[in-house]
Write a structure and sequence with these properties.
The structure is a single chain. The protein is an alpha/beta fold and 282 residues long. It has one domain: Divalent-metal-dependent TIM barrel enzymes (TIM Barrel), CATH 3.20.20. It is built from nine helices and ten strands. It has helices at 13-22, 45-57, 78-98, 115-130, 155-165, 177-182, 190-204, 238-245, 266-279, and strands at residues 2-6, 27-30, 63-66, 102-106, 138-142, 171-176, 209-213, 216-217, 228-229, 254-257. The longest helix is centred in the N-terminal third of the chain and has 21 residues, at 78-98. The protein is globular and about 45 Å long. The protein starts with a strand and ends with a helix.
C-alpha cells in the first residue's frame, strides 16, 4: 500500500507535490481541472511534461486522477450525457499526458427513470466510450453514498456493472470507506469491516479493487450522507481500518485521504493516524 493525499486546489502543483513528499506521501490524487466545470483548460504540453517529471522525481506513484463531480454516465438528460462523455475523454487524455494509470469516476444516478433503465444506460455508455479511451489508463468506479436515484451505493451493483462490461476491459473499483458507511455497510468494528469487505470481494473480485479512499465520516451509517471528517473524529474506528489493511493488498495500491482541510496541519495528523492503523493491522 502507498499512502497519499488528494491534492489541495490551492498552492500550485509543484508546491503541493513537494509538500506531499515532505509529509511522506508516496502517491497522490488530483483533479484534472476545476471539478465543477464541464471543460478542462487546454493542455499546456511543457507544463504537463514538467509535472510528470516532478512526480517521477518525487516517487509519487501511482498518480490517481479524480474526474469532475458533474460526470454522470447514466444521465437521462442528453446534453448532460454528451458533456459527461466529452469530459471523460478529455480527462483520459490528460491522464496519459501526466502518466496517471488510474482515473476515478463516481457511478452515476438514474435520475428517476428507475434502476434498470439507469443501469442499462450506464453500461451501454461505458462500453461505447471505453473503446475510445487510451488502453493504458484504467477507469476506477467509485462506490457512492447511495440512496435516492444513485446506482453505485451497493457492492453487488458494482459487481453487476463489471460483469456486464466483461473481464477484459480496463475497469476496476475505488473503494471509499466513508461512502460505504453512508450506503449502510457496517465498518463500526473489525468484524463488521471484514464482513463488509467479504461482500465487496464476492461482488467485484479482490483483484479489481485498485484504489482506496480511506475517509472517515461523521454522518450516521446508512444515512446516505457524505460528511467526511478527520480520521480520529469519525465513526469508523481504527480497528476497522486495521482490518481493512490486513488483506493482501498489492504493494502499489494507492490509499488516498480526502479528509477535510486538505493543505492544513491536519494532513500530517491524518497520515500519522493512517500509518498507525496499518501498523496495527490484524
Ligand atoms: Zn470521489
Ligand atoms: Zn472518495
Amino acid at each position: 500500500m502507498r499512502f497519499g493525499l488528494h491534492m489541495p486546489l490551492k498552492g500550485g502543483f509543484t508546491h503541493n507535490v513537494n509538500r506531499a513528499a515532505a509529509l511522506g506521501c508516496s502517491c497522490l490524487q488530483i483533479f484534472p481541472g476545476n471539478p465543477k466545470a464541464w471543460q478542462l483548460a487546454p493542455p499546456v504540453m511543457d507544463e504537463l511534461e514538467q509535472r510528470r517529471r516532478l512526480l517521477i522525481e518525487k516517487n509519487m506513484a501511482p498518480l490517481v486522477i479524480h474526474s469532475a463531480y458533474l460526470v454522470n454516465m447514466s444521465s437521462a438528460n442528453e446534453t448532460f450525457l454528451r458533456n459527461s462523455c466529452k469530459l471523460m475523454q478529455e480527462t483520459m487524455g490528460r491522464a496519459v499526458l501526466l502518466g496517471a494509470p488510474y482515473v476515478v469516476m463516481h457511478v452515476g444516478s438514474h435520475g428517476g427513470r428507475g434502476f434498470e433503465a439507469g443501469m442499462d444506460l450506464f453500461v451501454s455508455t461505458l462500453k461505447r466510450e471505453l473503446g475510445k479511451w487510451p488502453p493504458q489508463v484504467t477507469l476506477l468506479l467509485e462506490n457512492t453514498a447511495g440512496g435516492g436515484t444513485s446506482l453505485g451505493g451497493k457492492f453487488p451493483f458494482l459487481g453487476q456493472i463489471l460483469k456486464e462490461l466483461g473481464a477484459d476491459v480496463p475497469v476496476g473499483i475505488c473503494l471509499d470507506t466513508a461512502h460505504a458507511w453512508a450506503a449502510g455497510y457496517d465498518l463500526s468494528s473489525a468484524e463488521g469491516a471484514k464482513a463488509s469487505m467479504d461482500e465487496l470481494f464476492a461482488a467485484v473480485g479482490f483483484e479489481r479493487v485498485m484504489a482506496i479512499h480511506a475517509n472517515n465520516i461523521g454522518s450516521p451509517r446508512g444515512a446516505h450522507r457524505d460528511r467526511h471528517v478527520h480520521l480520529r473524529e469519525g465513526l469508523i474506528p481504527p480497528e476497522a481500518y486495521s482490518s481493512l489493511f490486513a488483506h493482501p493488498w498489492p504493494e502499489a495500491l494507492p490509499v488516498i485521504l480526502e479528509t477535510p482541510e486538505i493543505g492544513s496541519h491536519w494532513d500530517e495528523i491524518n497520515l500519522k493516524d493512517l500509518r498507525s492503523y496499518m501498523e496495527a493491522r490484524v
